[in-house]
Amino acid sequence: MTVTVACRKAVIEDVDQIHQIIREYADKGIMLPRSQQTILSTIDTFVVAEAAGKVVGCGSLCQLGSDLVEIRSLGVLEEYKGHGIGSRLVGFLLEQAKRRGIPKVMALTYEVKFFERNGFHVVPKEIFPEKVWTDCIYCKKQHCCDEIAVLKRLD
To answer: What is the pLDDT of residues 94-109, one digit of tens each?
Structure first.
């Protein structure tokens, strides 16, 4: 099956579909859950991948510091995996970071090979105190985090 996908900035009408994608990952324990209200209040940070009028993937870019953003809530519906949609979303988010003049993009992930294929490198989590104080203090895995930190420099 060939899938034609377009990436774009998310709009309010995408909130339910973004929430569904994130919930599927959160239910498996591999992504932090996000409420519909949280997604709505941060919709300007989200991008989506759309195929035949349906949102099939999403991701967001969260500012952590003046020179650092995080890719978060990155996911693709199960039936659309394997078509390069995740990489297209990452590329779209990296372009946004470049346009904003942000030189470093990080993520916490279980999908290290995916991020390495997209030009990221594994780094120690401890180099991101901005992340720790923004999100990690609220995470139930705070003291036993098993996610891997990755970083890509755009400068």
So the answer is: 999 999 999 999 999 9
Quick: pLDDT tens for 124-143.
887 776 555 455 444 555 55
Q: Does the 6-153 domain belong in CATH 3.10.450.50?
A: no
Is residue 73 within 8 A of residue 42, CB to CB? The reply is no
Residues 6+ apart with CB under 8 A from 68: 102, 104, 105, 106, 128, 130
Q: How many CB atoms lie within 10 A of CB 62?
A: 17
State pTM to two decimals.
Answer: 0.88
Whole-angstrom distance, CA of residue 96 vs CA of residue 77:
23
Report strand pairing: 54-65 vs 46-51: antiparallel
